[in-house]
Amino acid sequence: MGFLDTFIHTLPVVAPPKEKRLSFSTKLKWTLIILFAFFILGVMPLFGLESSALQNFQFLEIVFGASMGSIISLGIGPIVTASIVLQLLNGVGIVKFDLTSHEGKERFQGIQRILSIGFVILEALIYVLLGGLSPMPGIPAFVLIFQLFLGGILIMLMDEVVTKWGFGSGISLFIAAGVAKQIFIQLIMPIKRAGSEYSSGYLLQIVQGLQNGDPKIAAFAILTILATAGVFLLVVYVQSMKVEIPLSFGRVRGYGIRWPLQFFYTSNIPVILVAALIANIQLIAQLVGGANSPLINWFRGPNILNVLVNGGWSWVLLLQVLVYVLIFVGGSIIFGIFWVQTAGLDARSQAKNIMNAGLQVPGFRKDPRVLEHMLDRYIWPLTIMGSIGVGLLASLADLTGALGSGTGILLTVMIVYRLYEDVARQHMMDLNPGMRKFLGSD
């Protein structure tokens, strides 16, 4: 591993802050700077791109936080794909990392960075050489490939900036920003669809449908907006579900807290990975077999609302629904288990974090084994049940045809919720330095 470690240290990385703890204003500043840069890059078109090549690839924008036709057309796809591959290799034991040590974590992150760069190059080649993003006549394919490579590297570095200097992670930030943009566009877009007399925006479709005496158009637009609101409210409600474990401060008698374990214990990570895997399969199937490849239908949830309004229900459609749900649920369970093992969310790691914070189980001696045994009774059931729940919620929400996709809304709500928690925690620490010292954060 000597040569590999040397190579890892030669890769370009964003330097971490020298301070142990960044202030609220510093984190907010860098988060907003990267968000602004993300939107700017999203409107910078690829030089020499044939515009007709963009059709049928809009579904990638939500999952990958991409902007098709721009310099960041790859979005977070290479980073997430590298994470999927590395987790699978680590999960089946082909590659093993000691994530309890500083060196092991550095090696894991370094290899993930190498894989991400490799997938940036691979996906840029696939997009251009297989015709997904075709160059204009007279423009060499290398010109587009280089621009896509440059955009992919910029996204990687921007993700590191947010992770080290801002709130949350760049991957989450880009997904939430992309979904919010898609919902806004799908609501008010005045441009008419090809071959249709109605605007693309659903709010405008309601007005136009009623004016033209076409209740189906208006009803479908209303149901889509209601489905979007319903998915949003359901995700907000489920996100608040949690199990609280009573703990006491060993140093302060008579005082204790409740340590929360979310029902979605693995957060949105399993859904991001499953959605990215499905998007990659759809992309390859579409590039190889064309837009009408039959494989795509089995990895794309049908719009149930459209079927209810316009008809067309069949047993094949029902089978497609079942397959889509099973793929999401099964994939979420697999990635959820792998994520708990690789991200330090297992009972032993959590017990160590709790003990380091000066907490212990009331009525028991200060022994990490006691705490680990108690956490084991909660963490693995929450991992499995939470993964099933998040997979079901994402897939069923997709079937409603909600704006921004059900998966997109689910991810955005969970990302914004976690971002709010991070911001509130940081703000509390800044206002109460004594609390920071009390909890051992200094």
Shape, per Cα inertia axes:
globular
Task: Identify the CATH class of the largest domain.
Answer: Mainly Alpha
What gyration radius follows from the Cα positions, in whole Å?
23 Å
Question: Strand arrangement, largest sheet?
Answer: 2-1-3
Low-confidence parts: 438-442
Percent helix, as a range, is 55-70%
* Largest sheet report: 3 strands, antiparallel
| CATH topology label of the largest domain | Preprotein translocase SecY subunit
Binned strand content: under 5%
What is the SS-derived class? mainly alpha
Number of helices: 17
CATH architecture term of the largest domain: Orthogonal Bundle
> Tally of extended strands?
3
Ends apart, CA distance between termini:
34 Å
Q: Brief description of this entry?
A:
The protein has 442 residues and is mainly α. It has 17 helices and 3 strands. 66% of the residues lie in helices and 4% in strands.
